[in-house]
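Look at a sample.

——
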Amino acid sequence: MPSFRDGTANLLGLTSPGVYVDQILPTAFIAGLPTNVEAMIGVGSWGPVNAVTAFSDPTSCPYGPPQNRLYDIAKHVSVACQQGSVINFRGVRVTDGTDVAATGMVVGTGGGTFTAKYTGTLGNQITITFQPTAAIGAYACIVNFPGRTPERFDNIGGTGAAFWQNLATAINVGTSQRGPSNYVVFTASTMTAAPTVNTALALTGGTDGATTITSSVLLGQQATLPRTGMYALAGLRADASGYPDTFQLCDCTDTSIWNAMLSFAIQNAMMAVVTLPSGGSISSAVASRVSVAIDDPSIKIIAGDWPTVYVPGLGSILASPATVYQGLVGNLSPEQSPINKALIAVSATQTSQTGVLTSDAEESIAQTGGIDFIGRSSALNQDFFSFMTGRNASSNTAANGDEYTRLTNSIIRGLEGAATRSIVGRLQSVRPDDPTRLQAAAVLNSYFADLANPDFGSGGYGQIDNWAVTCDLTNNTPSTIARGFLFAFCAVRYLATVRFFVIKLAGGNNVTVSVQNTAPTISTSLQLAA
């Protein structure tokens, strides 16, 4: 007798006696999603344009070696990775429209042409070499790209123009031994001459298109497809596992686009990270925020006191504080504040190099003005640079910590997953013990229980403090049920960041001191209320 999934067969319509197995699948659970995905929009010397590319470190960055130039993604990746090695990047390369792919024409009148797969100066390093093979009348084509594995297309046969057509098929489509080239494409001609062997053909003429980059190019457009610049990230919403936690437009200090970035961040549960031109003060950063009317936790504004960061291959360079911030939070769990976290490889800031220390008054302006900055911190007998306020750009005192934004967005991305989407389309009744509501509540409670579990957090804490889920007839009425709604109310209490450690000291020769001879018991567990 047949088996079937629960709900796919009309059991009242069975006519033949026998055993039928109604398979009830287990309840799906909401899985935790990465919060170390950081997005960068900028220029490169290689790679697709206006397309999102995933990579994990400088060696896998597809945009070429880092260059100490404005908007260079590879440079920003190298800076960010100084803060730790667990970041997962999403890059979007943009150009000013003048980018050109390197090319090389096979010797001979009307010869075929090799063209780099992507535009950019890195393509000028590609060389093509032909070699004879053991097969009579056949050749191997080797595509060399310094720093990458050479590609070899073996035993390309044929005479005259047929050889070049066969070569085009091998390069562009692949062979039975390997796939198409990742470095070049080949356009065949009608030439009949055999290839010249053991002579390298160098591709030339590739350009980056990075000369006249503007904030509008980095921002891009979303009105038509394909989306460009920042808006190319919108397509990631369907894949929550790869959705960015933060994003920045590399080296962009144009305040006029902050509201567009904020709107995009809110719609897509991300945090926009922006900074001011190098050399700017905390007061000018606050003034810029006020002038463009920014007041929201989904944007992080960092003052223009840029740090000096050591980057392998580039040495000590002046780097955007937005990039240092992405590197730090890409290595921090979302409930953690960036306050008092040591910044690795940061040796100075523009103000510290002049011997000027940030005053308490200036730090107070930053704290109340929704601005962060890099300054000297001191903890555990160490002297290091760190972010000093951990504030986002919201004036809401219950939501103006970076940890609020990052944890809230992380929870949102989790709640948008397949487990909750599976509830849509199910049946719902007005019975108090409705199975769909019970299951929805169970899915949510299981998710928040994981977030509160110290095993998934640090220091004896989970990622949240406590929670409560309501999904019953108290917030679902017969009227709303009839109209297809299912409401679940989730109250989640976050852990609090210690910002003010107040030590009250009573000192004097007439102070009474009570001495405790028994050492106190230190508990390392957190007991949550049921």
Q: What stands out?
A: The first helix runs from residue 73 to 80. Confidence is low (pLDDT under 50) at residues 526-530. Residues 55 and 61 are 6 Å apart (CA to CA).
